[in-house]
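To whoever is on call:

I kicked off a structure prediction for a single chain this morning and the downstream step that reads the tokens threw a length-mismatch warning. I double-checked the sequence; it's 338 residues and nothing unusual in it as far as I can see. Pasting both halves so you can look.
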Amino acid sequence: MKRIVIFTDGTWNSPEDGVATNVLQMARAVQPEVNGIEQIAFYDWGVGTDRKKLSGGITGAGIDKNIMDCYRFIVHNYNDGDQLFFFGFSRGAYTARSLAGFIRNCGLLKREHANKIPTAYKLYRKRSKSTGPNEVTAEQFRQDFAVADITPIEFVGVWDTVGALGIPIPFWGTLGEREFLFHDTEPSKIIQHARHALAIDENRIDFEPTLWSNKPGLDLQQVWFSGVHSDVGGGYSEAGLSHIACQWILQQAKLLGLEFEQHFTDTLRPDPSDKQHNERKGIYRARKLFVRDITGPLHKMVKERWELDIDGYRKKSKALLRLLQSKNGDWSQIALVG
């Protein structure tokens, strides 16, 4: 048995970016072996990081390639009994979740059938949403070419999934979504444990979060953190807020046996008083301000930041203020974790 760990980054994130996201930092720090168990990692760049950066970022067209690249790595390395761990940020979170949906619908191909990856993806694209993996064609495909009818995924950990596959162009709306609505990003019975870190203070309407729906038998936690999109997923040198969300997901994965090198875990400095950034700039300022609905538990450091009132947080955090008003300002009515 070994652990295969897949990391998928957000739009325009690449290993050459000046400040690494949580995804890239964790990908660099996967311990190669733990108690005789091999751990192998694959890092996939964000949508729109190659020479087709603009079109890939605007339309999400690159997401097909991202998913198939990750899937191909798993097919080339998977043996029966291996554990799968997926991590993603932003559109990379969407990629990780769609990768899980791809595996549920088409199975994980045997290595001798790796040439059928494009065929499997076409089957995934054209499936009926009403039948999905239970469709006769999908079931027969898995029976003929996959290692098993159901290949379990041990853990999926994501930061701030963005549902829209397009980004806003001024006065044009959001492009490129319709073609990619086939993606199956809902949790299925093959996912054993799912964790989702969400940004309380992201206020761009085009970054509306895509939450998981809870399913029977699924170990699911969706927890809210202070900050905007990249304050949760990482990418800023002032990383105190993103380290909170990074540490939470890292600890959840460690509980299942995945280990990271000490040099990385020692550098995490979770700090609820660190800088919160403003990402509603440029073309995003022409779009409507969006206040997220907080629908789950908060990380305990959200309350710390509120009590410290860092940079006027009590007035600036409109989503948290709305939640507290609905509870008559009573923190005891709000679930805290971490």
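Update from on-call: the warning came from a stale cache, not from the record. Cleared it. Sanity check on the structure: Confidence is low (pLDDT under 50) at residues 166-178.
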